[in-house]
């Protein structure tokens, strides 16, 4: 599953630079996560880095984008190949 940023986001700017897949971007009101680029840091780290640094704990799993660890790894491999 990819992650999602909830409306509790305070736009503190700490999550975006931590994302190794460049999946996090500034939306109209708060930061958002591109589910096509989010691998929950699979392939890079053991745990999602954005969740670790978020001071308000507003980055849960996105129930609308269910993915297994294998699917997340496949997505990571495709992103690496795209370069």
Automatic annotation (TrEMBL):
Domain 4Fe-4S ferredoxin-type intervals: 1-29, 31-64
InterPro entries: 4Fe4S_Fe-S-bd, 4Fe4S_Fe_S_CS, PSI_iron-sulfur_center, YfhL-like
A GO MF label: 4 iron, 4 sulfur cluster binding
Database matches in Gene3D superfamilies: 3.30.70.20
Keyword Cytoplasm: no
Pfam (any one): Fer4_7
Highest rank taxon of the organism: Bacteria
GO cellular component: cytoplasm
Keywords per UniProt: 4Fe-4S, Electron transport, Iron, Iron-sulfur, Metal-binding, Repeat, Transport
NCBIfam families: di_4Fe-4S_YfhL
Record protein name field: YfhL family 4Fe-4S dicluster ferredoxin
Source organism: Dasania phycosphaerae
């Amino acid at each position: 599953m990819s992650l999602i940023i909830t409306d509790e986001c305070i736009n503190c700017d700490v999550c975006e630079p931590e994302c190794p897949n460049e999946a996090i971007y500034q939306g109209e009101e708060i930061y958002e996560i591109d589910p096509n680029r989010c691998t929950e840091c699979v392939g890079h780290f053991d745990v999602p880095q954005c969740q670790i640094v978020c001071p308000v704990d507003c980055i849960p799993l996105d129930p609308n984008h269910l993915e297994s660890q294998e699917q997340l790894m496949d997505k990571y491999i495709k992103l690496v190949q795209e370069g």
